[in-house]
Specification:
The protein has 337 residues and is α/β, with parallel strands linked by helices. The chain folds into 3 domains: 44 residues, no CATH class; 124 residues, Response regulator (Rossmann fold); 134 residues, 3-Layer(aba) Sandwich (Rossmann fold), CATH 3.40.50.2300. It has 12 helices and 14 strands. The strands form 4 sheets. The protein has a 6-stranded parallel beta sheet, sandwiched between helices. A 4-stranded parallel beta sheet has the order 9-7-10-11, with helices on one face. Strand 10, helix 11 and strand 11 form a beta-alpha-beta unit. Helix 1 packs across helix 2 and helix 8 runs parallel beside helix 9. It is elongated. The protein starts with 10 loop residues before the first helix and ends in a 5-residue tail after the last strand.
Length: 337
């Protein structure tokens, strides 16, 4: 017994059911299609009744836009990436864009990951991670399929890219001045990998403001090779274990919340110190766990919703926008500092 072939519902079927032209059906499904609300409602009702969905690939072949955006991520251990992805995909979908998620498996995989995305004829590739260098830019622009290469939540220095990020300079200036006003004098800065092409301005800004305004010794800086709680924890244990009590920092300023959570674990559970009585801690991002009573982390909330909306505006401009976008977030004072 053979299965009966399922007949594909076409735009012509929807047009006949709704009593409109085929071109009205096409306009109803276009993000920027010019159509009355009454006609759109009729088309959508007929489409839902028949189970019709437009062929996006066919539509993109007839246009210079696919309304598809590739999101390249390389750091799924960082819970803030999940916050970003939820916000980005929701806001992009509401604006009529589909998303293609590509897991970038380290720096060497970056060019191949982007080439994979470009083969889907994406309108833009959005890099959300640390492993980004000029090789990615050359792959994207050389393929002539990725119209825009956007660095999200970091500042990209490579030509041909657009950055959409939190204003790290304003944020770290506020954190530094807050700590000065609280009377802290011996900060330790715990930083992640120092990637030149996509970097955070947090460390450089904090050091500059502290040296100029606190007029004290240059803060000690520790780099870890990746943003991870275990690495942050071990780095703090190794550094503080080698110091006498009077020589240890009075505050650990962390480049992001993941490192800050690891630092708090190190202080409390490995070194037997109190937070903030012995050593205070600040973070950056405001991941969901930061507000937990277990950490009560003083941090800086990135304006992820506003950043996602800025991304939509850049996409809607169709490549005519070239200016970077830096947005102000919100300082979150809690019990850790």
């Amino acid at each position: 017994m053979t299965e009966q072939a399922v007949e594909t519902v076409t735009a012509d079927d929807v047009a006949a059911r709704a009593g409109v032209s085929r071109w009205t059906v096409a306009r109803a499904f276009k993000k920027d299609g010019v159509i009355s609300e009454k006609a759109r409602t009729k088309v959508m009702a007929a489409a839902a009744e028949l189970g019709y969905v437009p062929d996006l690939l066919a539509a993109s072949l007839a246009s210079d836009r696919s309304n598809l955006v590739a999101l390249l991520v390389d750091d799924f251990d960082n819970p803030h990436k999940l916050v970003m992805l939820e916000r980005l995909t929701r806001i992009l979908r509401a604006a009529g864009y589909g998303t293609l998620l590509v897991n970038m498996l380290g720096e060497k995989d970056a060019p191949e990951a982007l080439l994979t995305a470009s083969q889907r004829r994406v309108d833009a590739a959005v890099v959300i991670g640390t492993q980004f260098d000029d090789g990615i830019r050359r792959t994207a622009l050389g393929a002539r399929r990725v119209k825009q290469l956007i660095v999200f939540a970091r500042a990209g220095t490579a030509p041909g890219t657009i950055s959409i990020a939190c204003d790290d300079v304003a944020a770290m200036t506020e954190i530094a001045r807050y700590l000065m006003a609280k009377g802290f004098r011996r900060p330790l800065f715990l930083a992640g990998p120092n990637t030149e092409s996509t970097r955070l301005m947090r460390k450089d800004t904090f050091l500059k403001v502290w040296e100029e305004e606190a007029r004290g010794a240059r803060p000690v800086v520790i780099h870890v090779p990746d943003y991870s709680m275990p690495l942050g924890c071990e780095a703090v244990v190794a550094h503080l274990s080698a110091l006498p009590a009077e020589g240890r920092p009075d505050v650990i300023v962390c480049e992001n919340d993941v490192l800050a959570l690891g630092a708090i674990d190190a202080l409390r559970h490995r070194l037997g110190l109190s937070v903030p009585a012995d050593v205070a801690v600040t973070g950056f991002d405001d991941v969901p766990l930061a507000a937990s009573p277990a950490y009560d982390l003083t941090t800086y909330r990135q304006p992820v919703t506003e950043m996602a909306r800025a991304l939509v505006r850049v996409l809607n401009d169709g490549g005519s926008t070239s200016a970077d976008v830096f947005l102000t977030g919100r300082f979150m004072e809690r019990g850790s500092a």
